Amino acid sequence: MKNKLDDSRPIYLQIKEQLENDIMNGSLQADERIPSTNEFAQFYKINPATAAKGINELVAENILYKKRGVGMFVAEEAKTILIKKRKQTFYEDYMKPLKREAENLGLGLNELVEMIKGGESDEN
After folding, report:
1. Which segments constitute the HTH gntR-type domain (predicted)?
2. Distance of alpha carbon 46 from alpha carbon 25, whole angstroms
3. Taking the model in full, what pTM does it have?
4. What are phi and psi of 46, to 5 degrees?
């Protein structure tokens, strides 16, 4: 667990993102148990319902699953789901605005590809 939470963002989102990042970087593997809501609450000194909100969102997204009486675990397909989700977010947050601005500037696809590759267009 991260030592400190950011006061400017909802805590449940930070817990959710922390778990997602741990799955993405391999710190948490498929079928591995995650800390309980009470463990998160005790570590961060927060209400267990706050930690549960972030964890339950991951359950709803099929990234975590519950084993009754045992705890929450990382789903087998969690990393695949997260990669797909992050690719979609990347497209929405970066590619759509990039394409819009390229159109505004009259850049063709080849020029845009060259810029992404790190070279500059000959037409500059």
Report:
1. 9-77
2. 26
3. 0.80
4. -125, 170
Closest CA to 16 of 92, 68, 76, 72: 72
pLDDT per residue as tens digits for the range 57-97:
999 999 999 999 999 999 999 999 999 999 999 999 999 99
Q: What is the DSSP letter of 67?
A: E
* Cβ pair 17, 62 in contact under 8 A: no
**Per-residue tokens: 122:** 């000959």
Q: How far is CA 12 from the centre of its chain?
A: 13
CA angle in degrees (0–180, nearest 5) for 52-41-62: 25
Name 99's Cβ contacts closer than 8 Å, sequence gap at least 6: none
pLDDT at residue 21 greater than cutoff 80: yes
